[in-house]
Amino acid sequence: MKTYGFDVVFSDAHFDYLDIDVQGYELEVLKSGGRNIKNLLGIHIEVSFVEKYVGQPLFRDVDVFLAERDFTFHCFTGYGTRSPRGVKVDGSSVNGINQWLWADAFYFHRLDDDEFWGVSNRLVKLACIFHCVYKSYDFAVHALKRCDQLGGSVYCHEYVRYLQEMGVDVEEGEDSEWIMDGMIKKLSLI
Predict the structure, then answer these.
(1) In Å, how far from its chain's centre is CA 184?
(2) Best exposed site among 58, 105, 160, 177 by fewest CB in 10 Å?
(3) CB atoms within 10 A of CB 33
(4) So where are the chain's domains?
């Protein structure tokens, strides 16, 4: 069967967010989408921890590929387990206890890339993804705080006030750069 790469099929398209679940072929889709991938704010992708299909890339392969393209892992949103062959849990061979076979993972473009995020509304869109899709209100606050820093807006303050009115206990807080600076200084003393 002839297949076409992501950038070929979507040669004129511009995406902010991509959701990929193609039964073990996810890394090939990513590899064929260089132009589109570099412009994505976030990627929701199924990853595998155990080879289900011959030669299938695993989580570690997808994670390295995305990290090399400036994406940061955020969270897993779902996962599937199985028991070893010949073992049943609660009467089923499908109900595993602890070994994850696959998971859905969310990655976003690293937030310290000022050139990437300087493009109009990208951080606002990412904040909407964090809020609406993942309920990651803390990262929505963080994205809007970066937006305010880069563009002089006041979205973060308004969003925090909205969350507080909705009963979510969140504050803007201090920047954590001082924490990293302190850690680096401690490591250099060791």
Answers:
(1) 26
(2) 177
(3) 22
(4) 6-110
DSSP label at residue 166 = T
Give the distance, in angstroms, between the CA of residue 176 and the centroid of all CA atoms in the same chain: 21
8 Å CB contact between 127 and 143: yes
CA dihedral 88, 94, 98, 100 (to 10 degrees): 150
pTM of the full structure: 0.85
SS3 100: strand
DSSP strand pairing (100-109 vs 71-81): antiparallel
Q: CA-CA distance, 163 to 153, in Å (whole number)?
A: 18
Q: Tens of pLDDT along 93-123?
A: 778 888 899 999 999 999 999 999 998 899 9
10 Å Cβ neighbour count for 46? 20
3-class SS at 162?
helix
The backbone torsions φ and ψ at residue 104, rounded to the nearest 5 degrees and listed phi first, read: -95, 130
Cα(98)–Cα(75) distance, integer angstroms: 18
